[in-house]
Amino acid sequence: MVITGILGCLSAVSSYGETWDTLPPPAAVSSVKNQQYMLGLVVNEFDQGAIVPVVFRNGHYLLRAADLQSAGIPSSKISGELVDITSLPQVKAKYDSAGQRMVLTVPSEWLPAQNFSGGREAIRFPGRTSRGVLLNYDLYASRADNRGTRYSAWNEFRLFGDSGQFISNGVWQQQLGNEPSYQDDGYIRYDTYWTYQNEDDVLSWRLGDLVTDSLGWSSSVRLGGIQFGRDFSLRPDLVTYPLPVFAGQAAVPSTVDLFVNGYRNSSNSVQPGPYSLNNMPFVNGAGNAVIVTTDAVGRQVTTTLPFYVSSDLLKPGLSDYSFAAGSIRQNYGINNFDYGPAAASGSLRYGVTDWLTLETHAEGAESLALGGGGAQMRIGSLGVINGSLAQSRMYADTGTQYGWGYQYNQRWFTVGTQHTLRTSTYADLGLYGSRQGNNRNSRYTLSRRSAQYNASVNLDRFGSLGAAFIDITGGLGDRTRLWNLSWSKNIWGSSSLYVSASRDQQQGDWAGAISVIIPFGKHYSTSLSTERNQQGGTAQRAWVSRSMPSDGGLAWDASWAHQSVGSDYRQGSLNWRNRKIDTSVGFYGDSDNTTQWADLSGSLLLMDGAVFAANQVNDAFVLVKTGYPDVTVRYENQSMGKTDSKGYLLVPGISSYYPAKYGIDTLDLPADMIAPEVEKRFAVKRQSGYLLDFPIEPLRAASVILHDQQGQPLPVSTQIYRRGQATEYVGWDGLSWMENLTADNQIVAVTPDGRRCETRLVIADGQPKGLSTYGPLTCNLPSLPGASATAAPSDLSSGNRR
Fold it and tell me: pTM of the entire structure?
């Protein structure tokens, strides 16, 4: 009957010209009230790859609610365990009998949202540190015709480890001869402090000498005390400012390409439903994003969206804050321990939305209170405006500060302005500190008004043009207004031309300069320039130099200037650097007064019980230890040199919290030595060092020949089991490669046909010789296969099988 019904259906198709897609299930089964089919499920032309039961009942299709939810249809649109999809509003259902599929078309907004980040969530590499001591030094000597001879020695001492970093720096200086000293002799301490970083909470602590954090409309002061706050530099994997997210909907499976400023940034395969693209590159300023959607048959839809990105804003819900309290540091760089009255300062920024960031700042002392607030606001794709208002009270005087500005930046054009207006009685901690102790009657005051304007234009092949205007009115009413204009252009190859001019509005005079910079080869360059100052004097300068190679060597520079007023000016220096020290000598001056100088700088490190010399370490470093000499060490795939006779190599100049790749070249090792690990990627904590161990061990592996009692090689693919080792195999001629050999090695062999035997390899001197061949060893195999020996002995196969 079923066959007859199907033939009847075929005849109907032939007679009336209908297609399979317009027909219900075969007539023989359509008459059944509850006939179930196993069909493929397709939603908005996307094949889910699932086979689901479909019930055909009186011209209606019923599917299980769980199957519909798995296909992405929200539970709010369906009810019950069995859903009649033909009765759902906005849903079209079609039975594809040829493909045995149930094809559904639903509103695209019903389907699950898809998020394409493009790997934006960077992998976090926590900072590492080891215990150690570092001493940076800089020894400087100079002799001037009219000042005599002077020596100075700058130093920075660091003690670092898991508990943080203790740092102290200062300079010792001494004047020799009978010439008067223009600086105090002796030792001047600059800063001494302990600091600690908590990367999980993105917090940094500092105890001792510090500089308070500030906002764009507040100022910083030096304190001796404690400070803590957010420190986003600890987490390079975090993006703190909002980036645009582009969203859309796909009715059918499509490909979505994102172009940013004319360059394709990503291409994503999108299934039906809403999607969002948050794989925006880290740009800053205005731009255009073009989204091109292409469906399966090649139809394209192009959408252009302008955007503006500003790193001055914070992501919604993200906060940035800093708080400091202590005693005001006075006469910094003159007196070692001159601390004044107690003071405190705090700042907070909070991202309210992706276009608004609020700011607040407060500071105070015994006779000073200051507080204020501000905001950074993005106005669409037109840039960012900022504003602030602060009030202060020092002693009995109350003052107010207003601030506002605007910034716009794009690929071809930038413009910005910033204004500050203060009443004469406005004061902050900087002014308060200057009027303490012996400076109580100081006439130092804050500026009354300041205005800055700047603009630049990229003229493409015609170079770039910049302009700036500064207008400042001092606390005593003195006013300074300066104009600056500049133009630069690449003229040929890497050569460049630079022209600048400036004007003082008060004096009404112009000053300007024209210079040409011409590089020669990889390290050499020269510059020619002519200048005119505001007094009408002119000068022509010539300069030539050889830059320092990245791996050290010799560098030098020399310049000469012919001046219309005074004698000619001459200058020259010679610099030589290797992996341990950086030294230079030079002179400068004219025929009336010449100064000769010499400098020697570097660092000494104590780590892993040894002392190392290196160039100055400004931030972090890595000490690579192999225990083997002459092994090439690579940093980000670049050779940094070879390990010394004790197997150490110092890699200075590392940026803290940057996840760099370090490796060693095993081609430098003899054939009988092996390195279990040859590459690592990690980050180092700020102002710290890390001991990176790449152990190199003798190769404890050899070839072992195994024979049976008749002297014949064990069969190919015989499995070898040794205690704690991975399974090994016998190759041709009974030869087996065995690793991690010891003085006494018990061996169990199991042949492919299930026979089992045991033997032992004893190495006389107890030290296996790499790349040697031992044997043949006799392993007595039984004459008949033993079924009980097909499994590996549990006491000898604790290692992972291959």
Answer: 0.78
